[in-house]
Design a protein that fits this description.
By secondary structure, this protein is of the alpha/beta class. It has 2 domains: 188 residues, D-Maltodextrin-Binding Protein, domain 2; 204 residues, 3-Layer(aba) Sandwich (D-Maltodextrin-Binding Protein, domain 2). Helices cover 48% and strands 13% of the residues. Strands 1, 2, 3, 4, 5 and 11 form a 6-stranded mixed β-sheet that branches. The longest helix has 22 residues. The protein is globular, with a radius of gyration of 23 Å. The N and C termini lie far apart (51 Å).
Length: 434
């Protein structure tokens, strides 16, 4: 009996030692600038807060590059255990078999504490959360108080009709760049369509099946792109290549442009450059249209398969650390990204920091995500969407440059996008939408 007891105790201790085994893991991310600084700060804080595990955070230069490298590394069985993927790659990852849903890996976590606007993009139809929302953002309108005042404007426009009227006043006042954008799909198509409650593709943007087809080349989105072209021709709108800096957000931060639609994640850099000159408001609507929620942007953290128990435990510990209220608040204060959980928002209000400039976008961003939604404002579930974004930009730039009519550019984008969707559908034939 004593031998049996000692043997059982030894097994128990061995099991406990196995669970507590230290591990060195890597977390790959795509942010640069203030976002990268904040990520590195979080990694250092985690390593200093405990002695069992160590995480090395490795920047990859951009979301697109990070995703390509992670997929290649997975095929070579050299992938990191934790990977930051951006919103556009959600469906590809969901069906890849390379990732484990975080709600299955961490069933004890109260995932419903995450804001609905953050969960819906990364959640399956059955309610499983695929990844942990991290550097969440959404689209808002920025204004330069000083430049707007030169044209007698004291408040940001709520509608595009008001924005155009203000842009004409700014132009008349000698402001060469009244409004600026980079023309990326995320800003001028995805966020625009979501908050206007309109789809960019059938099957509720692909949520209901892989047989979706693009429809953005008709309706309000098509009208908006044509308007952007005419506003540029009139000198009211500048694209990146029209600005002195070559970047629309840098042009705003340098005081060249009076207004931009940009991510809440850009607030940190804008405030650092312009201070109290920065004004923020909800992204504009067309008159007579009902406002719906904007989409969550930025990225989330995924657990990649192919690692042992010790590495997985270290990954869970790091995710737990990043989820802490104080860590979310520190990250948001550094970058302008949004707090992702209700508990972190409550903690921010209790702290007394909610009204400080560094957290100016917190309530605005959350309120934009929390606007009433419909089946077409949940998010995007379209295959090879990263490649589609490139096609959309290439074709619409041709229209902006006068190489083809905007309607033709949109039709060509939809046609090429549908070819991608059919190829994706063929690749994952028989796969069930989660």
């Amino acid at each position: 009996m004593m031998l049996k007891f000692l043997f059982a105790s030894a097994l128990s201790l061995a099991s406990a030692a196995s669970v507590a085994k230290a591990a060195d893991i890597e977390f790959w991310y795509g942010n640069t600038g203030l976002g990268e600084e904040a990520i590195q700060n979080a990694c250092s804080a985690f390593n200093a807060a405990q002695s069992r595990d160590r995480v090395t955070c490795v920047g990859q230069g951009s979301y697109e590059v990070a995703m390509q490298k992670a997929i290649a590394a997975y095929r070579a069985k050299k992938n990191p255990v934790l990977m930051q993927f951006f919103d556009a790659g959600t469906l590809d990852l969901m069906l890849s078999g390379a990732v484990e849903p975080v709600s299955e890996a961490l069933p004890q976590v109260k995932w419903d504490d995450y804001l609905p606007g953050a969960r819906s993009y990364y959640q399956t139809a059955k309610g499983a959360l695929l990844s942990q929302p991290y550097n969440g953002s959404t689209l808002i309108l920025y204004g330069n108080r000083e430049l707007l005042a030169r044209a007698g404007i004291s408040a940001l426009p709520a509608t595009y009709e008001e924005l155009v009227a203000d842009a004409r006043k700014l132009k008349a006042a000698g402001i060469a760049c009244p409004f600026a954008t980079d023309g990326l799909s995320w800003r001028v198509l995805e966020q625009f369509s979501a908050r206007h409650g309109e789809p960019i593709a059938t099957r509720h943007n692909g949520y209901d099946g892989l047989d979706a087809t693009y429809t953005f080349n008709t309706g309000l989105a098509a009208t908006h792109l044509q308007n952007l072209k005419s506003w540029r021709d009139e000198g009211l709108l500048r694209l990146e290549q029209d600005t002195k800096t070559g970047k629309f957000d840098a042009a705003f931060n340098a005081g060249e442009c009076a207004m931009v639609e940009n991510s809440t994640g850009g607030y940190g850099a804008a405030y650092k450059a312009l201070g109290d000159k920065v004004m923020i408001g909800l992204a504009p609507m067309y008159q007579g249209k009902t406002r719906h929620n904007t989409l969550i942007g930025g990225a989330s953290i995924w657990i990649m398969k192919g690692h042992g128990p010790a590495e997985i435990e270290a990954a869970k510990a790091f995710l737990d650390f990043l989820r802490r209220d104080d860590q979310q608040i520190a990250f948001a204060g550094k970058t302008g990204y949004l707090l992702m959980t209700g508990s972190a928002l409550t903690a921010l209000k209790i702290s007394g920091k909610a009204a400080t400039p560094e957290f100016a976008v917190a309530d605005l961003g959350v309120s934009s995500l929390a606007e009433p939604g419909n089946d077409d404002s949940r998010g995007i579930r379209l295959g090879f969407f990263v490649q589609f974004r490139d096609i959309f930009l290439k074709e619409t730039q041709k229209a902006f440059n006068g190489e083809k009519p905007m309607q033709q550019a949109l039709d060509d984008s939809a046609r090429q996008g549908n070819e991608l969707l059919r190829r994706f559908e063929k690749t994952y034939r028989g796969a069930a939408m989660q």
